[in-house]
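Entry type: protein chain
Record version: 2
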Amino acid sequence: MSVTVCWDVDAEQPPARVAALRSMEAVTAGDKESWLELFDPVTVVEDPVGPSGFDEEGKGHHGRDGISAFWDMTIANVQRFQFVVRDSHAGGDEVANVATITTLFDGGYRVDTDCVIVYKAGSDGRILSVRAFWEADRAAATARQVE
């Protein structure tokens, strides 16, 4: 389990950045319930933004039921996650993280997904939206067997 960040985690951070870090930690821990608790009931998760195999209409996953189903369809199928955040830009109630997400699957396959993930947090620090910009073809091109 690994989350690498480039910002000073000991310094006070904007709520959206804190929420993003907590989300990454819950995902790497495989803790669905803790992850769901981070989200506002009216949340929308677009991962990736636009139509995809995870969201054919490209309208996102809405509310806790929607993101719970998203977890079951995507996150639950990964053996291990590693997030490397190379840069993070906060503004207002949002943060945009420039990252690579490494996913390890059963059978020893690894995929590295370069992305920009934008988190929006409410005044209570809960996540209102996640918009992940990444390209499936680029991620698939990194798939390889790992020993």
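Comment: Helices lie at 15-29, 32-37, 63-73, 136-140.
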